[in-house]
Each structure stands twice: as C-alpha cells, then as structure tokens.
Amino acid sequence: MKICFAASSGGHLEQLMMLYPIMKKNKSFILTEKTIYNFNAKDIKTYSLSQINRHEFLFLIKLIIIITQSLIIFLKEKPDVVISTGALATVPICLLAKIFRKKIIFIESFSKINSPTITGRIMYKVADLFLIQWEELKKFYPNAIYGGGIY
Fold first, then answer.
1. Cα(13)–Cα(18) distance, rounded to whole angstroms?
2. Do residues 19 and 8 make contact, with C-beta atoms less than 8 angstroms apart?
3. Which DSSP letter does residue 17 get?
4. CA 97: distance to chain centroid?
5. CB environment 56-81: b (16+ within 10 A), e (fewer)
6. Which of 47, 49, 108, 120 is least enclosed, having the fewest CB within 10 Å?
7. Average of pLDDT values for 12-30?
8. Residue 127 has pLDDT above 90, yes or no
9. What is the pLDDT of residue 125?
C-alpha cells in the first residue's frame, strides 16, 4: 500500500510528521508547500506545491497551479490512501483521491478545540475516516472519530 501524507507548511506539517513511524512502515511520500525554510523529511520522498492563501489576489491562478501539480504527482505516485492534516493546499490531492476511488483520512487540526477549520468542513464531507483530536469537536463533526492528540 502506498500512502500520501499531505499537509501545508508550519503546524499542519509538524502534526503530520508525528506519523513518521507509519510513514516508515509503508511506501510513503509527503506532499507539502514549498517555503523559504527547510524541514526535515527524514528519509521520506517529498513533493512541494506552491504556497497558497485564500485571501491573496492571485488565489484562483495559484489554485489552478496547485490542482495541476497535485494531479501530476497523483498520477506519478498512484497512492492508495491520502492522510492529511490540512490545510488548503492539500484539498486538491484529497479530492483527486476521491475521484480515483482511493481512501482519504483527514485529521482535524490539534489547534482547533472549539470550532472547525474551513478545510475540516470541506473534508468532513469527503473523507472516508475523519479524526478529531478534541472531543469538543463532536458537536461540529458528529460522525468523526475521536482519536486523541497525535503529539
């Protein structure tokens, strides 16, 4: 089984890297945003997408670029599962997984205790397994599974 681990930069990526033991046990690759700083992917193959912010002027153009980049990576790697901690940059790869009938596991952000994320609200509708790290989020995601913190 091949797993795509997808996260935007910063805290989302830090949370995703907590799953490194799972990455090591499977054929895996990481999909994240390209930033000015380097992160330690250890020995896991990594792909970088353009960084995106939904409030920027060129949002639609960058979104099209990210969709294209994600499609190329998806067709090259052919993952069986996508595991994501969000955010926006990871939505295209997750939706591609859904189109190609692959499994999606979404882990809602550890930093969200009392309200859902925008990406979480989108992914709740399409994920095969939706995990929350705080029981308080059950009121927003009634069918989610509480898995506790990944830290």
1. 9
2. no
3. G
4. 12
5. eeeeeebbeebbebbeebbeebebeb
6. 47
7. 96
8. yes
9. 97
pLDDT in the model for residue 110: 93
The count of structural domains within the chain is 1
Give 24: exposed, middle or buried? Use CB within 10 Å, 0-12, 13-18, 19+. Answer: exposed
Report the percent of the chain where pLDDT is more than 70. Answer: 100
User: CA torsion, points 29, 132, 10, 2, in degrees to nearest 10?
Assistant: 0
pLDDT, mean of residues 41-65: 91
Residue 151 lies in a domain: no
Domain for residue 97, yes or no?
yes
The number of residues in the chain equals 151
* Structure tokens belonging to residue 64: 């099209």
C-alpha closest to that of 103 among 89, 76, 120, 82: 82
- Boundaries of domain holding 61: 2-146
Q: What is the C-alpha to C-alpha distance for residues 117 and 96, in angstroms, rounded to an integer?
A: 20
What mean pLDDT is predicted for residues 42-62? Answer: 91
Q: Over range 32-39, report the average pLDDT.
A: 87
